[in-house]
Write a structure and sequence with these properties.
Layout (H helix, E strand, L loop, with lengths): L1 E2 H4 L3 H10 L4 E2 L10 H10 L24 H8 L8 E4 L1 H4 L13 E4 L11 H17 L1
Parallel strand pairs: 1-2
Antiparallel strand pairs: 3-4
Helix pairs in contact: 3-4
Length: 141
């Protein structure tokens, strides 16, 4: 999943997102959206694809996870059998800092946690905080 406004600017970015990453582009602003982002994700999952989500909705400046956006909740609620595996990417903010056009070749490490599932009846705020905690615990381990 990638921000359409960011990845549609410039030929190099368009090449990377379509030919290298095979990304699904999402309109970030609800005002201009032509299609529901969750519907796009569900279609991809139903087709057998895997998704990499950044549930904060944007790249952080490193060190601390921001609050999660509601999209990951709607996805989990619609497909409670899908495993949402938290992954803490250490040093990612230096590899692809906000405003950078291309990644900087630096080393990163990735820690994977236990899958998170939506529990029947779980409210959005509760799920998002539980999923965020699962991610944060990986970064402090």
């Amino acid at each position: 999943m990638a921000a359409k406004d960011y990845w549609s600017r410039g030929g190099v970015r368009r090449f990377l997102i379509h030919r290298v990453f095979h990304g699904l582009l999402i309109e970030r602003s609800g005002f201009h959206r032509e299609e529901n982002p969750v519907a796009i994700m569900l279609h991809a999952l139903d087709a057998g694809d895997s998704l990499i989500l950044f549930p904060e909705g944007t790249r952080g400046r490193g060190g601390e996870a921001q609050p999660f956006k509601a999209g990951v909740f709607h996805l989990a609620e619609a497909r409670p059998d899908v495993e949402l595996v938290p992954a803490w990417i250490d040093n990612a903010y230096r590899v692809m800092p906000k405003g950078a056009a291309l990644p900087i070749p630096l080393l990163c490490s990735v820690a994977f946690g236990k899958p998170v599932h939506w529990e029947a009846g779980e409210r959005r705020a509760e799920f998002l905080e539980r999923a965020r905690r699962a991610l944060v615990e990986l970064g402090t381990a």
